[in-house]
UniProtKB/TrEMBL annotation:
The keyword Manganese does not apply. This is Outer membrane protein. Keywords: Cell outer membrane, Membrane, Signal, Transmembrane, Transmembrane beta strand, Transport. It comes from Dokdonia pacifica. It comes from the Bacteria. Pfam families: OEP. The keyword Ribosomal protein does not apply. One of its GO terms (cellular component) is efflux pump complex. Transmembrane segments: none annotated. One of its GO terms (molecular function) is efflux transmembrane transporter activity.
Length: 481
């Protein structure tokens, strides 16, 4: 038992350690965001709503069937539900009915509602796809920002290490009388400034990690870490594609324009639905109903003690002598109510027919709904046109940004090469006392800034290429880094 406990405990520690030490790759972050991002989940609810709307539209084609049952007590002068006679009584009665209805004609509203529901479903699918692409791109940008901050931190730490070595070297030169003591103070000031930059860089890394974790809906910030991978610049060949070809490809693959086109189609379908209200509607119905009562039954019997009685029926003309006839002496006897089931089939009935409803005047509501729908169509047309212009501008802007990012990256490479040579030359001059600490610090600062700028321009260039690839139709989950 003790060995089993040790093994289980060791496995638990191993799994916990693995979870804490896990480093996320960019592809894992993108997939996790697509599975857990709150915005995507909210958008998926729109898809569920569209599916429900389509079920409603299909249900409009089906007949309706409704049942009704009631049971009540009446006291005083009330109608006997079985005889229809008004009586002073306390009576219980019940009624039951089943009604079926079918829509025969309603201006083709059922067909138009079904078409609209299908348009809504397609629009919801497009919207989800767009949100996923946007989310994947946002995750990639946040991921690259973490990498950029990490690279900046590495650069600052490495720079500070060189500065610390330079402090020791300057101390020796000052002690040897080669350099004045002011140069040592200048180098130490540079060291202090770089240590401040290290703290700022560490904070930037932590904040960017938190931002990325929040984008993933991952709340274990302390144990969240990404893979420290060197990302190369891939996909540069897309810059050889002309902006016109890129735009046409983007129109085919991106969902921005498809969404507004679907919204315009939905607005036009809403206009058709509002116009359908001008047509008459024809409904068919069939109703079966029955009833029963708790009222007692009455039967007629001949009085055994006085079985007959004389009843006057007229007079003899001239003598006015009354003429009598003998009739049975009938007594009414109260009995139990008729059995429940027997009453149901004795008192049942059916009704069926067709109902025509013609809209004549309803306070301008129908006409106003049509005008309101026409306004919405115009608004959607303007939005569609504006979206097209914005989309074209975004594609050309993305292409221009990518070209500029490439030039900036190439310039950063050249600048770093030049600044590195200038720094090496300044270092040699400083070591032999041919230049002062201030000039040397300025040269080193320019070299440090060139390294940071190269890192920034590299990751910016990578991101701009990925944006172009998305416009070119590459799925977000298949972007290569």
């Amino acid at each position: 038992m003790r060995k089993l406990f040790i093994i289980c405990f060791s496995l638990f520690i191993s799994v916990a350690g693995f979870a804490q030490n896990k480093k996320w790759t960019l592809q894992e972050c993108v997939q996790y965001a697509l599975d857990n991002n709150i915005t995507i989940k909210q958008t998926q609810l729109d898809e569920e709503t569209a599916a429900i709307e389509k079920k409603d539209a299909i249900g409009n084609y089906l007949p309706t069937l409704n049942g009704n049952a009631s049971n009540n007590w009446n006291s005083g002068l009330t109608q006997n539900i079985t005889t229809g006679v008004l009586e002073t009584q306390t009576l219980r009665n019940s009624s039951y009915s089943i009604t079926a209805g079918v829509r025969i004609f309603n201006g083709f509203r059922n067909k138009k509602a079904l078409d609209r529901a299908e348009l809504s479903r397609i629009a919801a699918d497009y919207n989800i796809a767009k949100i996923k692409d946007d989310t994947a791109l946002s995750v990639a940008l946040a991921y690259l920002q973490v990498l950029l901050n990490k690279e900046n931190l590495k650069t600052v730490v490495a720079q500070n290490q060189v500065t610390k070595e330079q402090v020791s070297r300057t101390q020796e030169l000052v002690d040897g009388g080669v350099l004045p003591s002011g140069d040592l103070l200048e180098i130490k000031a540079t060291d202090a400034s770089e240590r401040q930059r290290i703290v700022a860089a560490q904070n930037a890394v932590k904040i960017s990690l938190i931002n990325l974790a929040q984008l993933l809906a991952f709340d274990d910030y302390d144990n969240f870490e990404i893979e420290d991978t060197e990302y190369n610049i891939l996909g540069e060949e897309i810059l050889n594609t002309s902006p016109e070809v890129l735009l046409e490809k983007a129109k085919e693959s991106r969902y921005d324009l498809k969404i507004v086109e679907q919204n315009l189609a939905i607005a036009k379908k809403d206009l058709e639905l509002s116009k359908a209200s001008l047509y008459p509607t024809i409904n068919g119905f069939f109703n079966y109903n029955t009833r029963e009562s708790g009222a007692p039954t009455f039967s007629q019997t001949v009085d055994p003690n006085n079985p007959s009685t004389d009843v006057p029926i007229g007079f003899v003309e001239g003598t006015n002598q009354t003429v009598f006839t003998t009739q049975p002496n009938i007594l009414l006897q109260e009995g139990n109510p008729t059995p429940f089931i027997e009453q149901l089939y004795l008192n049942d009935g059916i009704s069926y027919g067709v109902q025509l409803s013609v809209p004549i005047f309803n306070g301008f509501s129908t006409r106003n709904n049509i005008k309101r729908s026409e306004v919405n169509v115009k608004r959607s047309e303007f939005q569609s046109e504006q979206a097209r212009l914005n989309f074209e501008s975004a594609v050309y802007q993305a292409y221009t940004d990518a070209k500029a990012a490439k030039e900036s990256y190439e310039a950063a490479i050249a600048a770093l090469t030049s600044q590195e040579l200038a720094y090496e030359y300044a270092k040699l001059r400083y070591d032999v006392g041919r230049t002062n600490a201030f000039d040397f610090s300025q040269s080193k600062l320019r070299y440090d800034n060139a390294q940071v700028e190269l890192t920034r321009s590299k990751y910016d260039y990578i991101f701009r290429i990925k944006v172009l690839e998305l416009y070119f139709g590459v799925p977000a989950t298949e972007l290569k880094f």
